[in-house]
Amino acid sequence: MTTARNAHGTDAIITTEQPTFGFVVVANRLPVDRVEAPGGGSWRRSPGGLVTALEPVMAANDGAWVGWPGVADKEFDAFDNDGSWLVPVELSTDEVETYYEGFSNDTLWPLYHDVIAQPSYHREWWDAYVAVNRRFADAAAEVADEGAVVWVHDYQLQLVPEMLREARPDLTIGFFNHIPFPAYGIYSQLPWRKQILNGLLGADVIGFQRLADAGNFSRAVRRLFGYTTKGTNIEVPVESGGTRNVVAKHFPISIDVSGYEELAERGDVQARAEEIRAELGNPSVVMLGVDRLDYTKGIGHRLKAFGELLEDERLSATDAVLVQVASPSRERVETYKTLRDEIELTVGRINGDHGSIGHQAINYLHHSYPREEMVALFLASDIMLVTALRDGMNLVAKEYVASRIDEDGILVLSEFAGAADELKSALLVNPHDIDGLKDTIMQAVSMPRRERVQRMRALRRRVRDNDVARWSASFLDELDQARPAGAPEVRAPEGS
Ligand code: G6P
């Protein structure tokens, strides 16, 4: 027996075996992670953009969220969390290795990021991916009302749309891919390339970050299945004859801009920014990198450029400091272990060569920080370095811009991050070109205030015009057009 809040938004407490909802999110992670401790455990908000992105839609819709609680071999009952009904999906230790660390993060992740690292193809991993996707689809089918809207997220769950459509043809199904979708020449390596496309084509609307990603997907569908595509529409044949329309389109994701602005306006956050600069020895230039410790982020390229600038004496370690926040990620995957060793070796070498007692050229922090501290860091930094080799969007770039309410600060942004499609007033770089990157950093160091303000104003306008509420509203609008007449409507968050 489960005690649940009424699924339709009244305050009544109802007791039911299985509440159902008109809006269901399905994502690999729940918005909270389970933290086990001796004698009990607790739930902690999981980090990352997805939770923040979906929070306003969840609040507006009183929906359910199906996801993994982040620990293996633990079964949890569904529960209410701030008005959202959370449905934990259990993964065994073996499935964490094969479905999550394996197929999701050692096959699809490197493949979809243009094979920056070599993807591994293992049939057992694929089998686990199918089995776990089935479990997520079953859990979603169980909590979805008749005619509900279900929104599936990211590369870990690409088979869910088709599985759900088979089980529940009454549902309207959306899918959003948060990472890039590669060109056909790369995608075609995947031994299960047809199964994945079929999985995604179970959705009514498939969202991508960039126009190029949506184009790559449609091209793969044409090449592998020969289906007709017209603009953003794909005609998918159905068994009963005729076709079903699937939309494949780009919807660049964003952030809660006013949330960042509010933090940046707070006196304690501004005081912390000053304190950070003082702790760094009040150098004339503070540069900042903030990333998950991932090989797609180009952290090594950034360090190389910074190290060479010190070596060439174009920068001096007393005048210029680099703060690199590298939050721990996927630490049991071999490529990530190797990356950490390489990055830490490089940081150690640069600090050994250029540091002095009490002063390091690079402040390297292998931690995650709360949002307040991040905004203080953004405010304390003259130059933000986003040098990803490939990135779906890169929300850190948008967070930096949103936080700079003083209209100062320079964003150096990789052309290979999705954000570069929108943030054209940043200093755009090709991070593979180390000399070009060094010159761009020096251009940033000597940029006059007038130009900094001009650029930051233009960037802030772009980020404000497309905030996360607008992103989810435009995706849900598109999905709404696929909804059969009479099915319940999904509300867009306020302010969109
Ligand atoms: C990227 C992915 C997300 C993922 C996040 C953190 O942003 O698009 O789906 O949740 O990285 O990675 P993790 O493996 O810790 O969930």
How is this structure best described in words?
The chain has helices at 49-61, 93-112, 123-143, 160-167, 184-187, 193-200, 211-225, 257-265, 267-279, 299-311, 334-354, 371-380, 395-403, 434-445, 449-465, 468-482; strands spanning 2-5, 13-16, 21-29, 32-37, 40-45, 64-68, 79-81, 84-88, 144-153, 172-176, 205-208, 229-230, 233-237, 243-250, 285-292, 320-327, 362-365, 383-386, 410-414, 427-429. With 496 residues, the protein is an alpha/beta fold. It folds into two domains: 2-253 and 470-481, Glycogen Phosphorylase B (Rossmann fold, 3-Layer(aba) Sandwich), CATH 3.40.50; 257-465, Glycogen Phosphorylase B (Rossmann fold, 3-Layer(aba) Sandwich). Strands 7-8-6-3-9-10-11-14-13-12 form a ten-stranded mixed sheet, with helices on both faces. A six-stranded parallel sheet has the order 17-16-15-18-19-20, with helices on both faces. It binds 6-O-phosphono-alpha-D-glucopyranose.
Please tell me the overall pLDDT.
Answer: 94
Alpha carbon gyration radius: 23 Å
Distance between the termini: 38 Å
Name the CATH superfamily assignment of the largest domain: Glycogen Phosphorylase B
Question: Class by helix and strand content?
Answer: alpha/beta
Quick structural summary:
Helices cover 42% and strands 22% of the residues. The chain is an alpha/beta fold.
Question: Layout of SSEs?
Answer:
Layout: E1 2-5, E2 13-16, E3 21-29, E4 32-37, E5 40-45, H1 49-61, E6 64-68, E7 79-81, E8 84-88, H2 93-112, H3 123-143, E9 144-153, H4 160-167, E10 172-176, H5 184-187, H6 193-200, E11 205-208, H7 211-225, E12 229-230, E13 233-237, E14 243-250, H8 257-265, H9 267-279, E15 285-292, H10 299-311, E16 320-327, H11 334-354, E17 362-365, H12 371-380, E18 383-386, H13 395-403, E19 410-414, E20 427-429, H14 434-445, H15 449-465, H16 468-482
Parallel strand pairs: 3-6, 3-9, 6-8, 9-10, 10-11, 11-14, 15-16, 15-18, 16-17, 18-19, 19-20
Antiparallel strand pairs: 1-2, 4-5, 7-8, 12-13, 13-14
Helix pairs in contact: 1-16, 2-3, 3-4, 8-13, 9-12, 10-11, 10-14
This protein binds 6-O-phosphono-alpha-D-glucopyranose.
6-O-phosphono-alpha-D-glucopyranose is lined by residues 28-29, 48, 154, 178-179, 329-330.
